Amino acid sequence: MKKLLFIALGVVTLSVISLKTRAQATDGYEYKSAIGGRFGVANGVTFKTFLQGQNALDVILNFRSNSKSSTFKLVGLYEIHNDFDGAPGLRWYYGAGAGIGTYKNKETDNSGAAFSIDGVLGLDYKIDGAPINLSLDWKPEMRFAPDNTGLDFAGFGFSIRFAF
């Protein structure tokens, strides 16, 4: 499953790189959209796009596995970005959203649908003059799944994206 996720990430990244982007998309600190990988407690593919002004939508397709369970999930987050005075390219953001996917308990072999209500708090940095966006965030969630309902505060992640 991890191999499939990383192959999908590679294909999507190469597809985006092959697209013609506007010259100003890589100039300065601003970007409209970005796609890449998110690594941490859960690993996956992330796509962020700004809707208007400082408001963005971040869609994450991720896989998480440990000795007790595994989860494959699609998460959508609505984020509000705010600038730091005197730190061009660096923004902090917060937001909320929801996730849906599948869950498997490895101890009992039970599986089923997994749902979550997610929050996010993080830092976003666009490298000046380069099509690279970096994010570091904390994504707590309230899970609703068989044998695994409750709060999870371990959702730290680091994202590296191609900005366009």
Please explain how this structure is put together:
The chain is mostly beta strands and 164 residues long. The radius of gyration is 16 Å and the shape is elongated. Helix content is 10%, strand content 60%. It has an 8-stranded antiparallel β-barrel.
Tell me the layout of helices and strands.
Elements: H1 2-18, E1 33-40, E2 43-52, E3 55-65, E4 69-83, E5 90-105, E6 111-126, E7 132-138, E8 141-144, E9 150-152, E10 156-163
Antiparallel strand pairs: 1-2, 1-10, 2-3, 3-4, 4-5, 5-6, 6-7, 6-8, 7-10, 8-9
Strand content: over 45%
**What is the helix fraction of residues, given as a range?**
10-25%
Shape: elongated
Calculate the terminal CA-CA distance, rounded to whole Å: 29 Å
Q: How many β strands by DSSP? A: 10
Question: If helices are DSSP runs of H or I spanning 4 or more residues, what is the number of helices?
Answer: 1
Rg result? 16 Å
Oligomeric state, counting identical vs distinct chains: single chain
How would you state the average pLDDT, rounded?
87
Helix-strand topology string: HEEEEEEEEEE
**Alpha-beta content class:** mainly beta
**Sheet with the most strands: spatial strand order:** 1-2-3-4-5-6-7-10
Outline the low-pLDDT stretches: 18-26
Largest sheet: 8 strands, antiparallel, barrel
